[in-house]
Design brief:
Blueprint: H1 14-24, H2 30-35, H3 41-74
């Protein structure tokens, strides 16, 4: 494992990784998380589970919204 005190690029900094996971990239940000030396193994596992749960929630909410919208358009 790399030295966590070593200067790392901005995109591996904790703030950038968390923003990419929850605001920008979703599960596509997981490679940034796993390559970042700033997170412990436990933090990586917890953030992975949180990202997957958040993504599943957003997919379900999108499907429900689409169903409601299609019903409203048809006049049901």
């Amino acid at each position: 494992m790399e030295n966590p005190d070593k200067k790392v690029p901005w995109y591996y900094q904790p703030w950038a990784v968390v923003m990419s996971l929850f605001l920008v990239l979703g599960p596509f940000g997981l490679p940034l998380l796993y390559r970042s030396p700033k997170f412990s193994r436990t933090a990586k596992i917890v953030l992975t589970i949180a990202t997957v749960a958040y993504t599943v929630y957003l997919v379900i909410a999108t499907i429900e919204l689409a169903q409601k919208m299609s019903g409203a358009l048809i006049g049901v």
